[in-house]
Amino acid sequence: MITIDGSYGEGGGQILRTSLALSLVTGKPFSIHSIRAGRKKPGLMRQHLTAVNAAAEVGGARIEGNRIGSLAFAFEPKMIRPGNFHFAIGSAGSCTLVFQTILPALIIAGEPSEIMLEGGTHNPFAPPFDFLEKAFLPLINRMGPRVEAVLEKPGFYPAGGGRFRVSIMPAGLNRFDLLERGDIIRRNARASVANLPVKIAHRELKVVMEKLEWDRDRLEAVEVEKSQGPGNILIVEIESENISEVFTGFGEKGITAEKVAKRAVKSVQEYLAYDVPVGRYLADQLLVPMALAGGGKFRTLSPTRHTTTNIEVIQKFLDVEIAVHEYDRNKWEIEIWNG
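Below the sequence we write its predicted structure tokens.
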């Protein structure tokens, strides 16, 4: 049985989710201890427990220690069981992270799957639904499977109450390289508010317009309906010939709309300045599917601690080599190949 130290590297929930995803795919059991030791509240929170239980349902796994606050558990999968699934977190915990835990197994399963997930769809501590839809899933589809996600109801932190559905048509994974962004086709920014004054969105978009020197026709303010609680998100999308990237800023109590927008704009400016195709967060998300495909190569910004930690966990389950090197100033290349 593989032993995972949950305090390693960035010491967060990603270690848990990657371990679950790869245990399902490989059939290798694992035990994990010191779960989320690097966080203020260590152990399994509700969204992590939902991910564990979702993985157990997909893989018919036997688990010990799956409870709120648990610092350790053991996971022994049997076989991947595609089908219709419904997972509800019961809080504003991230649906997208639960989804990404079970996605690798279901995109290579023998039959299609349908999933409904309920909880937080727009959570500042996780990729929002828009990132999945616009940036991540198009690349998964490029590898062979067909995955379609539909947002039915937004769920902002801290109220939650969101819902989205996913249809998965599995296929063998094809490797691909992503070394050039290509020409930029479209740039746009959308600021959304739920149960908050729309002027917040207009203030954020004003910063985007001034800092990025964009025309007004690239900007959109949206008042979200059907939201269970208040929320605000600024989404900036850069669509290029070979990839779309999504950058976000989340409204927070006590943080001005201008500061929220400046944070997002800073990430966009860095991405555009270094002319690499893959942003930092997407780089982290691509590692598992590329490793399962047997290889791939992409260029990105300087790797985060999430990325380097994820590499270490992947290599505990898969016989792959992963090389990370800086090929130019602040430009990095990550290559994966079978060991």
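The chain has four domains: 1-80, 82-174, 184-273, 275-339.
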